[in-house]
Amino acid sequence: MGTDALDLLMPEPYKIKAVEPIRMLTRPERSKRLAEAGYNTFLLRSEDVTIDLLTDSGTNAMTDRQWAALMMGDEAYAGSASFERFAKAVSDVYGYPFVVPTHQGRGAEHLLSKSLITPGDTVPGNMYFTTTRLHQELAGARFEDVIIDEAHDPAADHPFKGNVDLKKFAALVKRVGAERVPYITVGCPVNLAGGQPVSLENLREVAQFCRSKKIMLVIDGARAVENAFFIQEREKACRGWSVARILKEMCALADTISVSAKKDLYVNIGGFLATRDEALFKKAAELCVVYEGLHTYGGLAGRDLEAMAVGAREMVQDEWVAHRVAQVRYLGARLEERGIPIVKPVGGHGVFVDAKAFLPHLGPEDLIAQSLAAWIYEDSGVRGMERGVVSAGRDEKGRNRPVKLELVRLTLPRRVYTQTHLDFVAAGIAKTWERRMELPGLRFVSEPKMLRFFQSRFAPAKVASGRR
Ligand code: F0G
To answer: Nearest Cα to 402, choosing from 416, 389, 387, 412?
Structure first.
């Protein structure tokens, strides 16, 4: 793994053609805005944020070719030429013959869950993702985590920390019966574990097991290109392979892929479900008409389909993903050299700060990562996102789901920020690091039932409660 400073120095493989000004508030202004936003970074106004690392989802800069393609959008209600170009790109790049476009990734998750789940089923996955699990639960299934143990340890330096633990998976299938497991979702890579990849070898073993039990293998491919990059870098059997070839190989092992195009495909909106299973395709296309729009536009404009078609072909060029991961690692290295605790190894889409290690004086009731995200914004105008107990939500009995990881994700939008911006982020977080022992926790003020992290409001705890 290249952690040498010179390895990390990789010039941006693009020139900048249009720019968007950034505002910088004063500290008292930020404190006021933070309080108005209920200490939830999701409720801040974008204009009050200096460097926005909330998410890499839909926040990408498109190429000039993608912008040009927008003009080619065929806005016909049915049978649009843009859909044909999009479907051809998906089949060329991912290798699936059938595709249903959706407004974004969770649209695809909704169609998939509704098409395949019978109430009472269990759907395993390599760690949960918020919207993925919720759609499975809304369709009547129970989610079960079958990721390897290392994924839950921020310090465990495993090259494929996203791998499925086949023993856990097999034990689950034995316990509930293969007929109650319609599919497994394998996130490649695993967002909430820090963007950790799955090896091709592991995917092959999972595929073999799935075939023997007639369980569908579904890849959550929001950032599958980043997973392919890590395979290229770390899996001996794939040395010298292009990212394009590895992505195709990953997809060849799975039956279906569900994609939020707002990540890998460098667009601002869009998603799709692609499969080689004709029965699933027919069912999902039927449901698409009910929930998204006709199956040739899926809630998108023709121009969005054009941008996705170009993005899908461009994303597998090795230099784009190599630069993206180098940028993420650059930020990771700048934080590490200041002693700031982060999840190792650094993943593909962002740096995950270990909030428990950052704020050791706080206990679980202090909503550790939520607090850290708030104080980072207050100190520097850098917006990150909580990935901890608030994101995990409550179980069916209303109890907070226990979490091992309390992380603040600093996610890098693609092709948006420069190295100087990343230096600014590291310096900003260093300010929070310096005053860490005086930082209080947060308490809920209001809490919606579903996906609470988006809209909950908080207030600072009177005093830091102290770990007991
Ligand atoms: N799967 C993964 C792994 C994701 O990271 C996301 C979205 C989705 C599915 C859902 O896709 O947002 O297009 O509906 N992740 C965003 C994030 C929200 O910030 O990580 P969507």
So the answer is: 389
Tell me how far CA of residue 462 lies from CA of 31, 36, 439, 459, in angstroms: 16, 18, 11, 9
CATH number of 3-56+318-464: 3.90.1150.10
The answer to whether the CB of 44 falls within 8 A of the CB of 373 is: no
Q: Are 412 and 328 in contact (CB under 8 A)?
A: yes
User: Six-digit token pair at 350?
Assistant: 């962002």
Distances (CA, A) of 55 to 41, 326, 455: 11, 17, 16
> In terms of Cα–Cα distance, which of 344, 465, 320, 452 is closest to 407?
344
DSSP character for 359? -
The residues annotated as belonging to the active site are 77, 129-130, 220, 263, 387, 453
Measured distance CA(349)–CA(346) in Å, rounded? 9
- Nearest residue to 265 (alpha-carbon basis) of 206, 220, 309: 309
Class of 64-314 in CATH: alpha beta
Tokens of 246: 């590895």
pLDDT tops 60 at residue 169: yes
- The tens digit of pLDDT for each residue in 72-109 reads 999 999 999 999 999 999 999 999 999 999 999 999 99
Ligand 1 centroid, distance to 112 Cα (angstroms) = 15
Cβ atoms of 280 and 243 within 8 Å: the answer is: no
Segment 380-396, tens digit of pLDDT: 999 999 999 999 999 88
Whole-model pTM?
0.94
pLDDT digits (tens, 9 = 90+) for 293-322: 999 999 999 999 999 999 999 999 999 999
Rg for the chain (alpha carbons), in Å? 21
Query: Domain coordinates of the chain in residue numbers?
Result: 3-56+318-464, 64-314
Angle at 181 between CA 175 and CA 187, to 5 degrees: 110
Q: How far is the CA of 241 from the centre of ligand 1 (A)?
A: 27
Using a 10 angstrom Cβ sphere, with 0-12 exposed, 13-18 middle and 19 or more buried, the burial of residue 95 is: middle
Q: Please indicate whether residue 383, judged by its CB atom, sits closer than 6 Å to ligand 1.
A: no
How are beta strands 51-52 and 142-145 bridged, if at all? unpaired
Residue 117 tokens read as 């789940």
Q: Quote the CA–CA distance of 273 and 256 in Å, as a whole number.
A: 7
pLDDT at 431 over 90: yes
Q: Are 400 and 389 in contact (CB under 8 A)?
A: yes
CA of 219 to the centre of ligand 1 (A): 13
